[in-house]
Write a structure and sequence with these properties.
Layout: H1 2-21, E1 29-32, H2 39-45, H3 50-57, E2 69-72, H4 75-78, H5 84-95, E3 100-107, E4 113-116, E5 122-123, H6 129-141, E6 150-152, H7 155-158, E7 175-177, H8 178-187, H9 191-201, H10 203-212, E8 225-226, H11 228-244, H12 246-255, E9 273-281, E10 284-292, E11 297-304, H13 309-329
Antiparallel strand pairs: 1-2, 3-4, 3-11, 5-8, 6-7, 9-10, 10-11
Length: 330
């Protein structure tokens, strides 16, 4: 039984990474690189751009070679206006909903994106646990930290109720590994685990890392606020990290197996992997993640002044389903 579980766990990781690194591209044209070709020449020939070609073929630079097969996105997928219809659909839906929503969408293959109130600072709640845990994963991958390193629980510094299971079991002086704490911070959104991690690496170090990977609104005036655009940046950084690091693949797997699924995954069909991190403080439900459909996309939604949190999460789910249906129909 144990071996079966390990096999299923490994299989899920491989499926997630294969979708990230080798997305389904049945919509694309197949082109074989000829001597003298460059990405710029190929992009010009097919009326697209170098960045789109790099994203579609998982290229980290401009190096190509004769005989290499490239996927060429069609003109519609390379056109930023292609998503105007989807954006308008979401805007019309949100216009009928109370409260404020910040939304960001990004097609992983083409890199096309759009935002709605994407730069409005809104409560990040527990979504901020994602860049924190990503930072620790990075330090482990660099050999600065070790997963088996143990942190000591101090109730006066670390206790917090709300999400998580440690509040019911941990005792003063208990030692927990980084591996256990990061897993619980993501899968059950454990507040005590997060507080222990944050105290260990330092809030300032976390904030500096968030800025380093592209965050613009990072703890303004010390408040736990962020934007939909920044959260999408952190999700993209998680995907990029997972391409070359086992730690990142495990982080995506944790995100795909959390216990809270009222937001992004709610209306997505069974069998489609959704790696995400929900967050909630009263009046401000949020969710950030990536949907690995046949055309994967990043979606981040933060909110404020939401009277009915259940409806707020359903609104996030509805927005995501609009994105999913649009992507599947391209």
């Amino acid at each position: 039984m144990f071996r079966d579980n390990n096999f299923k766990f490994l299989l899920l990781i491989l499926v997630v990474i294969s979708l990230v690194s080798f997305p389904v591209v049945s919509w694309a044209t197949n082109y074989q690189v000829q001597p003298g070709d460059s990405l710029w020449k190929i992009a010009k020939r097919f009326s697209t751009n170098v960045t789109t070609l790099q994203n579609a073929n998982n290229l980290n630079n401009n190096v190509i070679y004769p005989g290499q097969n490239l996927y060429i996105p069609d003109n519609n997928t390379a056109n930023p206006n292609n998503y105007n219809t989807l954006k308008q659909q979401i805007e019309d839906y949100l216009a009928e909903q109370p409260g404020t929503y910040g939304v960001y969408f990004k097609d992983i293959i083409s890199g096309q994106s759009f935002g709605i109130n994407a730069d409005t600072p809104l409560p990040a709640a527990s979504t901020v646990k994602l860049p924190t845990v990503l930072f620790i994963n990075k330090l482990v991958s660099e050999g600065v930290l070790d997963w088996q390193q143990k942190l000591v629980y101090n109730s006066s510094a670390h206790y917090q109720g709300g999400s998580g299971i440690l509040q019911f079991s941990v005792k003063e002086g208990d030692k927990l590994t980084l591996r256990a704490l990061t897993t619980q911070a993501i899968t059950v959104s454990d507040n005590i685990a997060y507080n222990m991690l944050k105290s260990f690496v330092g809030k300032d170090s976390i904030a500096n890392y968030m800025r380093e990977i592209g965050g613009q609104t990072v703890y303004p005036e010390g408040k736990n606020l962020s934007t939909a655009r920044d959260m999408a940046t952190y999700v993209q950084a998680t995907i990029d990290f997972a391409k070359n690091n086992p730690e990142g693949r495990r982080l995506l797997d944790d995100m795909a197996n959390g216990i809270y699924n009222e937001g992004i995954p709610l209306y997505i069909p069974d069998g489609v992997t959704v790696a995400h991190k929900e967050g909630f403080v009263w009046g401000s439900p949020g969710d950030v993640g990536v949907v690995f459909g046949s055309r994967p996309f990043i979606v981040t939604v933060l909110s404020d002044d939401i009277e009915d949190p259940d409806q707020g999460f359903r609104n996030i789910a509805t927005i995501t389903k609009m994105m999913y249906d649009f992507q599947e129909n391209l």
